[in-house]
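Q: Convert this sequence to structure tokens.
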Amino acid sequence: MGMSVTISAARAEDAERILKLQYLCYQSEAELYGDYAIEPLTQSLDELRAEIAQGHALVARLGDEVVASVRGRLDDTGTAQIAKLIVHPRMQRHGLGGRLLAAIEAHFAAASAARKFQLFTGHRSDGNLRLYRSHGYVPVAREEVRPELTVVTLEKESASAAFVASA
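A:
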């Protein structure tokens, strides 16, 4: 019998595991864009802890192992800024990223009545773009950071905001 993956709020003691997973997961992004100095690869443990403290973080566990994570925070406009959705390479393509994305959206919709959700990824990150589009996100902006990298910002209206707008 196999173990099931559980999703829960990250704990303070998860920070180091999240950082190690983040470093592993962002190697492919760094290679794709030819830039190993991207922020997820240079972020310190203290910076990660501060980021988690300023918002909300979830982890997915397989037994005791942290195999995926996502972070987010609510900004002043009522937009939940979702960031660093990471899934261990051996766990990818099994729906775990989508489950985490739905869980962080549910947290912000319930806890803070977020009006919309926003995230970003690189223009060559086809898997990320496919995942986000399949969850209702639409591109709203593109910014060329350098010739090899254009950042695509995607948004989705919160179900609670859609309900208010239709009322």
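The longest strand covers residues 65-74.
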